[in-house]
Design brief:
9 helices, four-stranded antiparallel sheet, eight-stranded mixed sheet, alpha+beta, globular, 320 residues, 32% helix
């Protein structure tokens, strides 16, 4: 048994032709955040603190669909959501509909620790963030030129887009930014376990491109996009509606508990139950196992274990 950590930057139709100038900033973000998490675990930080720290760091990268890189609704606004869960106590906190809170992940932690509730959303969540003294900014802070263009292309294609999926090129004008992945962003998440088997999970996202105002995805829903118990911690990414229907994160834990499957087999089973092209996840077990399956073209992901193993990957093979 030893510590382990895994994180993701979203799953979807990530083109194999993604050029270095688009791939490398995301790879660098994963590497930096993995190093942050490893250092925290080596310093004997609690897994709950580790996943919050790592997801906050991921949210500061505009290349990912969380925080400053959050994608836009049909009205051109940002509505962020996040969730955190402690495996030992099953305490959890979740938020949705945030448009001014710099770090949604820290607000969900406060919901867990400072309220009798699990889930706050929209005006109530924003008001609570102000009461707690969290950093608040103008909503325009989160809106990037790339995501404005991405929303325009999604609306021209008349579709809602999963992380990294591209508008149908037959329906919209060809655009270099879409063709080479410039405007593609992904949900972020992290799971961790310490050397004593304590587990935690956290996930944060801006949702789907061109989603309806008020839409809530899988990320803040316990058992769908985020879950942790005494056996494992799971963070999912992909199309929220499919992940919610499949109760993906909880299924991993349930199959481990009731069928006696290993973490790897349980995660593979949960992913297989979701239609292809819709989901990816990262998970760790209480004994330090790690798995990162997906049924999309790719998933930005990274992991490390106490025995020295580490991996950063997008498609089937680890990056050099």
């Amino acid at each position: 048994m030893g510590w382990a950590i895994a994180l993701h930057g979203g799953a979807g139709d990530i083109p194999l032709s993604l050029p270095p100038e688009r791939r490398l900033p995301r790879e660098a973000g994963l590497r930096h955040c993995l190093d942050v998490g490893i250092a925290a675990l080596k310093a004997h930080k609690r897994p709950l603190d580790v996943v919050e720290l790592v997801v906050r760091e991921l949210g500061n990268y505009p290349h990912f669909n969380a925080g400053k890189g959050s994608v836009l609704t049909t009205s051109g606004t940002v509505e962020m959501e996040a969730c955190i869960m402690d495996g030992k106590t099953k305490k959890c906190g979740a938020v949705s509909g945030l448009s001014t809170v710099v770090n949604a992940i820290s607000l969900e932690r406060l919901v867990m620790e400072k309220t009798p509730h699990i889930y706050l959303a929209f005006d109530g969540a924003e008001a609570f963030a102000r009461e707690q003294g969290l950093e608040i900014v103008d909503p325009t802070y989160f809106i990037t030129p790339e995501n404005i263009e991405r929303l325009k292309q999604a609306q021209e294609a008349n579709r809602v887009q999963i992380d990294y999926n591209q508008p149908n090129q037959k329906e919209v004008k060809k655009d270099a930014a879409i063709a080479d992945g410039e405007s593609q962003n992904g949900t972020v998440g992290c799971v961790a376990v310490d050397s004593e088997g304590n587990l935690a999970s956290a996930t944060s996202t801006g949702g789907l491109v061109n989603k309806m105002v008020g839409r809530i995805g899988d990320t803040p829903i316990i058992g769908a996009g985020t879950y942790a118990n005494h056996l494992c911690a799971v963070s999912a990414t992909g199309k929220g509606e499919a992940i919610i229907r499949g109760t993906v994160a909880r299924d991993v834990a349930a199959v481990m508990e009731f069928k006696g499957l290993s973490l790897k087999d349980a995660a593979a089973y949960a992913v297989e139950q979701v239609p292809p092209g819709n989901v990816g996840l990262v998970a760790v077990s209480s004994t330090g196992e790690v798995t990162m399956p997906f049924n999309t073209t790719g998933m930005f992901r990274a992991c490390a274990t106490e025995d020295g193993y580490s991996e950063i990957a997008i498609w089937d093979s680890p990056l050099k």
